[in-house]
Amino acid sequence: MTYFIDGGKELTLEKESFMLELERDPLWKIDDYPNISLAEIRERTMAKVRRLADDLANSSKEKFTHKMSVISVIDPGFWTRFGVHIGLFFGALQGQATPSQLAYWLGKGALTMQGMIGCFGMTELGHGSNVAGLETTATFDPDTDEFVIHTPTLTATKWWIGGAAHTATHCAVYAQLIVGGRRHGVKTFIVPLRDPTTFQLMPGVNIGDIGKKMGRDQIDNGWIQFTNVRIPRSYMLMKHTKVKSDGEVIKPALDQLAYGALIQGRVSMVSDSANVAKRALTIAVRYATVRRQFSSEPGQPETKLLDYPIHQHRLIPLLAQTFAMAFAAREMNTKYLSIMKRLNRAKLADNEVASVLEDLKETHATSAGLKAFCTWMCLNIIDQCRQSLGGHGYSAYTGLSTAYQDFVVHCTWEGTPLMDPLHAMAERAKKGLPLPENVSYLALFVKSTRRPSCKSDAKGDVCSLTTLKEAWGCVAANAIIQAAREFEDASKRGLDKDAAYEACSAARLHAARMHTFAHLLNHFISILETSPAPLRTMLVRLATLFATHSASQHSGEFLACGYYTPEQIYTLKQCINDLCAEIRKDAVNLVASFNYTDFVINSPLGCYDGNVYERYFDLVRRNNPQKPVPYFESLIKPLLTRSIEPVVGPKLEIDEQGEED
Amino acid sequence: MTYFIDGGKELTLEKESFMLELERDPLWKIDDYPNISLAEIRERTMAKVRRLADDLANSSKEKFTHKMSVISVIDPGFWTRFGVHIGLFFGALQGQATPSQLAYWLGKGALTMQGMIGCFGMTELGHGSNVAGLETTATFDPDTDEFVIHTPTLTATKWWIGGAAHTATHCAVYAQLIVGGRRHGVKTFIVPLRDPTTFQLMPGVNIGDIGKKMGRDQIDNGWIQFTNVRIPRSYMLMKHTKVKSDGEVIKPALDQLAYGALIQGRVSMVSDSANVAKRALTIAVRYATVRRQFSSEPGQPETKLLDYPIHQHRLIPLLAQTFAMAFAAREMNTKYLSIMKRLNRAKLADNEVASVLEDLKETHATSAGLKAFCTWMCLNIIDQCRQSLGGHGYSAYTGLSTAYQDFVVHCTWEGTPLMDPLHAMAERAKKGLPLPENVSYLALFVKSTRRPSCKSDAKGDVCSLTTLKEAWGCVAANAIIQAAREFEDASKRGLDKDAAYEACSAARLHAARMHTFAHLLNHFISILETSPAPLRTMLVRLATLFATHSASQHSGEFLACGYYTPEQIYTLKQCINDLCAEIRKDAVNLVASFNYTDFVINSPLGCYDGNVYERYFDLVRRNNPQKPVPYFESLIKPLLTRSIEPVVGPKLEIDEQGEED
Questions:
Q1: DSSP secondary structure letters along B179-208
Q2: Keywords of this protein's UniProt record, alphabetized (chains A, B) (predicted)?
Q3: Cβ-contact A603, A398 below 8 angstroms
Q4: CB nearest B157 (choices: A39, A617, A626)
């Protein structure tokens, strides 16, 4: 099963080798994170950056990516600190620099960090996902052939810039290009922040530390203000838009290729969702087979948590979701790599570009949906797993409270799902045009007047994968068509395109969610065909549980479109009970197939040998053993030994006189 | 509106006075929490304990409780540290000590902390909510007239004990009473932990620090192990079960009164849910009326977040939920106080006890359900509000990431909702017996064969409060009856009572959730009648939004029981859109009516004057201004200046020979 999940024995062995390498390196000690300060965390993380930088220079990109995907489970905050340089900063260079610019920055150490470390200056205090609204300006000065980078207002302060506070020497700054008084949109400029030899701030650059966050304290997010900072004209990345020394601005023919870097980020977040969910479930399932609570008969040992139906209901469907995400992540990855390969080839034959761009758009939309819903799904998995540990889930030593705090930011950055491409697909379907495979269900529903429904009440029919696939297709198509209809209604009421999109935003979000479920299920089913025979029974169970559980959570949709009757929904629920009980028998093996070592799991409650209490106690016992309470003399003793005199004021003459009256 | 929410002008003025008092006291500075260490947080919290202890001695219980409910929003961790002594430890004394025992401990300072500070030793490493399964033993030694308190195994270690690590001198220890070799169940024993004059641990007592948690680091949770610690027989709390010096164990007639303390905890958690939700929404709504994003037309100012329908959908229904919770909390409080009054009177007339106990049981069940679902609801509100701040929600300075981490434990402790009493009510309904008012909807559905449904498709009818009340009653009754049926089916299959309860646990949980929604709605509607006329229109809107939004989130239930048709569900959704847009106009006033000062809100993004960016920047700017990066010389410089020699090994003779061959 492990080989199947990982995508082959070779990849499994490689992953195992990375885990071993990291475990043996004292720098990667992670079980004491709860005890060390923000400053120590930051410093230790930099030491790891230093160490990993050599790997970057010496290993293949693919191998390095695989290693980073293991590291991202072990130490998500490190992953971000390193990723800012290699993914965002270097990614911006790759995507937006001309060949000679790229060569120039490579020579300065832009990849290997020999000479410079980069950060990525997009977001501002007052501006997040709306890049077009950024306020920082880059004004061209033809007299000196320079750009002047400037922060005109407080809200234009670059904000959340990872690596800015402590690490970076250079920043890829997103700013409004202004030439001859005219604005030409947001472009990217490489701005030196610190002198690499002294680490002194460059003139006009002000930087501060964003400080404590909910998680990922490993990365030193900072704010940056520029006061008329001058850079050579050639520091603007000019692969697309170009500015000549005489001030002429040359716009590119196609500006869409910037998609690439964003998609890569999303693809890795889908993988990360699957991987982090694997870790959370390993902890929760292992603990639930050790922890006992309440005995069924007096004198008998208490029952294991995982033998309670309510606990199975909580965890086992999450196991099915994790498999669905893992397979979807693998597919996204493959797809992305193949598009990138074609794109690189396409550089030679210009006429291929358009066709690749079409595919890129579709992948863009699917990856946006998968990113949004898989990160939400994973966050829910972490939280459910954490809650399933009872009170111990609240401890910083059991692994999941920190996992939540680290992961939750995935749900925020890089935005929310896109509906526009789905809307376009609905239009295509109406016109009878061919559809990409993952929205092919639309064709069935757009034109037909008779809606499909589940014809048989037999459990085997209601809960078969064939029925469930049709059911989810029906619900997704319904939601997409509904959103398209609301858009048209809004347009008819006279709203312009943007306003009409806003008016149906809830319906669009809902449609994207339903489409993503259908996509996850369809891909899971397609995987079954290629799966090794001994695994198939289990995989079918997992796929069926994924489909029935998510359907029962959205039962209103299935009832509303008339696919299932209330009785059939009830049958689904019984099927979920049966599947939970069935899969529970193999639950321990299934989490073992995720193949993470105790080092990666990094939770005493999720250890392989089940010796959870001793390990947990050993870890906690390291906290200040029996030292005297530091504030006993100053605070506690005065409290315990104080005396309170009742307040009785002097007797007033006026009261005595009053009495006499 | 403020007076109406708070329950009268007097209470509002009192709350304002508390807020002012705390704001003026430098000890209550809270805006620098993200910057200070665990050790500093602990110490500062103890200083507040010291200060508040005098209040405890000098103010009425009611006034003190009101003050604590303000403090619980400002500093939830402090609230827990103080609450462990006053709520749990002193509560245990009040509930379980005989009058002479209570007098004895009061004389030692058990209330005022003059001489002792208490903690509450219930949970163990291996045992949470199953109190009967606790392993710690209290063995009676008739020779010395003492109990021997002992931790027999690792899993018996007292765990999570708030105040144990740094604060407490005494502990109310829950342990198995063993007399003459026989076990008599879990009882409570007061065990000295530390010498109050030296703070040295008592012989046989070992204590450690549980360390870092997800939140509430203000409280020093600890673990305790007892090795044959001896205490006088009279240190066992003997209001109920008594042990005589000759070893005779006298069991109480009625043991149910221990409910009291638990209910108090739950009631305060429902209040707390409402109060914390008020704070979260104040931050989110104020920020959403300042933050702008994307302009509808070029050159125009960007649109305020709260003017986007999708943002309204996110926040406005949560506003309605908060009102529902606030009113329910007020009612629970009143009910609880009246029962407690009757209970104290009942001590005189024994025949009244049974009747009060009936009411207590019902309150117990309702409070358990409200506690469970209101804490979940509030947690969701915090998280949605946090997400609505975009990236800034991830900062520790904007108030909601910490709020989440502090609040999330409310969802864990003191257990999950009870279904048993609802099941009993279903039985009563079947037999035609009278029902308590809050489950009166059962009577309508149990016996009738024709199910009620919404007869009219007109928007005004589908979305009227009368219809919605009937609809929610129908869904709740359905869920309760379904759970009862599953229980009976399981019994028929031969399962014993406990196993049958387990088998239908998912259905029971679902029934409790549906019942709680119906209860919240019914109470909201009943409040409308007593509301001042000028507020009524707004309150009706809020109640309707609460009902329609929660119905649309559970649309499957309404479709399955045939109350609404799919078209009517669609009408509900349109009604939600309209209500969100309508209530949005008053959103700023509504959060103002929650009446929290900027000090209590403690978030630059939620300040009253809307000057969010300056305040946020000022707060963050306090972080290390321009200090040199501490590890530049040791780590960064060597990284930037290193050189990597390509590895080229010596040329081997064997290869040259090979070439020659």
A1: ETTEEEEEEEEEEE-B-TTT-PBPTTEEEE
A2: Oxidoreductase
A3: yes
A4: A617
- Domains of chain B, each with CATH number or no CATH: 2-101 (1.10.540.10), 419-601 (1.20.140.10)
**Residue A60, helix vs strand vs coil:** coil
Question: Do the chains contact at B391 and A401, CB–CB below 8 Å?
Answer: no
Among B54, B58, B636, which would you mutate to test the A interface (most chain A Cβ atoms within 10 Å of its Cβ)?
B636
Residue B576: closest C-alpha in chain A: A506
Q: CA angle, corner B343, sides to B342 and B344, nearest 5?
A: 90
Q: Cβ contact (<8 Å) for A639 and B117?
A: yes
- In angstroms, how far is CA B174 from the centroid of its own chain? 23
* Structure confidence at residue B505 (pLDDT): 83
Query: Among all residues of chain B, which has the CA nearest to that of A308?
Result: B502
Could you tell me the pLDDT band of residue B605, with boundaries at 50, 70 and 90? very high
Nearest CA in chain A to B386: A412
Three-state SS for B105-143 is HHHCCCCCCCCCCEEEECCECCECCCHHHCCCEEEEECC
Query: How far is the alpha carbon of B643 from chain A, nearest alpha carbon, in Å?
Result: 7
The mean predicted confidence, pLDDT, of chain A is: 88
Total number of residues shown for chain B: 661
Q: Considering only A183-197, A632-646, B4-18, B211-225, which range has the smallest mean pLDDT? A: A632-646
Distance from CA of B456 to the nearest CA of A (A): 18
Q: What value does the mean pLDDT take over residues A337-344? A: 79
- Residue B335 pLDDT: 86
Cβ(B615)–Cβ(A146) below 8 Å: no
Interface A-B, measured as beta-carbon pairs within 8 A, has a size of 318
Q: Is the ipTM of this complex over 0.90?
A: no
Q: Which two tokens stand for residue A411?
A: 């749900």
Name the band, by pLDDT with cuts 50, 70 and 90, for residue A443.
confident
Task: Report the C-alpha gap between A147 and A22 in whole angstroms.
Answer: 44
Mean pLDDT of chain B: 88
Q: In three state form, how does the secondary structure of B341-367 look?
A: HHHHHHCCCHHHHHHHHHHHHHHHHHH
Report the distance separating Cα A166 and Cα A348, nearest Å. 41
Of A206, A397, A620, the CB nearest to B208: A620
